[in-house]
Design a protein that fits this description.
This protein is mainly alpha-helical and 143 residues long. Helix content is 86%, strand content 0%. The relative contact order is 0.15.
Length: 143
């Protein structure tokens, strides 16, 4: 059977892993948006300077430029909005809060300086409070 300390430490580790995955997703989306902007600028320059003014290649390059320009804002709106960044920060904060409580419990700091059973009960209550705050934040961001 897991102790309260192990339970909360595992929950903190899970939240930490989730926040790392969320951060990576945000970073990939940022790099993709930058890449699309560079591609669009390059295609636009090639369209104007290299491709002959008549013919299907001009239209193909113009279409590719417009597509790259259109995908950038779409990507930004769907993956780089305020809600995504705020969710990541909320999950990261919850992971750090749980980790702090684990360290406090391990060091027997207040409010974990009583008996082992009292400390475990207090730790589980704190875990539940942190999870409730996180759920509340997620609900606010969803609406």
């Amino acid at each position: 059977m897991k102790t309260a300390l192990e339970t909360v430490a595992n929950a903190a580790a899970t939240l930490s892993a989730s926040s790392v995955a969320m951060k990576r997703k945000l970073e990939r989306a940022r790099w993709a948006a930058l890449g699309l902007a560079v591609v669009a600028a390059t295609l636009g320059a090639v369209t104007v300077t290299v491709v002959p003014e008549t013919g299907p290649r001009r239209w193909a390059f113009a279409f590719a430029t417009a597509l790259a320009l259109g995908l950038g804002p779409w990507l930004t709106a769907h993956f780089l909005g305020q809600n995504q960044a705020t969710r990541w920060v909320a999950v990261r904060a919850a992971a750090e809060a749980m980790k702090r409580e684990v360290y406090k419990r391990a060091a027997k700091c207040k409010p974990y300086d009583g008996t082992a059973q009292e400390a475990d009960i207090a730790l589980i209550k704190e875990k539940q409070a942190i999870e409730a705050k996180l759920a509340e934040r997620k609900q606010l961001l969803s609406s």
